[in-house]
Specification:
This protein is an alpha+beta fold and about 140 residues long. It is built from 3 helices and 7 strands; from the N terminus they run E-E-E-H-E-E-H-H-E-E. The protein folds into 2 domains: about 1-35; about 35-135, K homology (KH) domain (GMP Synthetase, Chain A, domain 3, 2-Layer Sandwich), CATH 3.30.300.20. The longest helix has 23 residues, at about 35-60. The protein starts with a strand and ends with a strand.
Length: about 140
C-alpha cells in the first residue's frame, strides 16, 4: 500500500498517485472547504467500521434499507494536538435487530477495523451509539 501527495498553494495537499484525486487542507492554506488530515482519519475510521458492520449484518441476513455514519472527535488544545476521543454514531433504517447491530459493531471495533484499533492503540477512547428507525441505543 502506498499513497502520495503534493503541496498545492490553493488547496493545501492534493494526492498525486494513480487513484482518484483527494484534496485536503494543511495549516498553510487552511481553507475550511477541505477536510483536515484529522478529519480524514475520522472518515477512514467511519468507513472502515461501516464496511465491517454492513458486511456482518448482511451475513446475519439483516435487512438494512439505508445507512449513515457520523464520527465526532475533538482535538487537544496543546501540542501534539491529538484526538481526545472519537464517537461513532451508526444510523440504520430497515428491518434490523438491535442485538445484531450491537454484535456487529462490537466485532468491528474489537476485532476487524484496523483504523479504529490503531486509534484505540494510541490511547484514544472510541465510543459508539446507534440509531435504528429513529430510536437511539446507547
Amino acid at each position: 500500500m502506498k499513497v502520495s501527495f503534493k503541496f498545492d498553494s490553493e488547496i493545501g495537499f492534493t494526492s498525486d498517485d494513480s487513484k482518484k484525486k483527494i484534496e485536503f487542507k494543511n495549516s498553510i492554506v487552511n481553507k475550511d472547504e477541505y477536510h483536515s488530515p484529522t478529519e480524514l482519519l475520522l472518515l477512514a475510521m467511519g468507513g472502515c467500521t461501516s464496511d465491517d458492520v454492513l458486511n456482518i449484518l448482511k451475513k446475519m441476513r439483516e435487512k438494512v434499507k439505508s445507512y449513515r455514519c457520523e464520527v465526532t472527535g475533538e482535538k487537544r488544545d496543546t501540542d501534539p494536538k491529538m484526538l481526545k476521543y472519537a464517537e461513532i454514531h451508526y444510523i440504520f433504517d430497515g428491518d434490523v435487530d438491535s442485538e445484531s447491530v450491537k454484535k456487529a459493531i462490537d466485532l468491528s471495533l474489537e476485532k476487524y477495523c484496523s483504523v479504529s484499533l490503531t486509534v484505540k492503540g494510541a490511547g484514544i477512547p472510541v465510543s459508539y451509539y446507534y440509531t435504528i428507525n429513529g430510536k437511539d441505543y446507547r
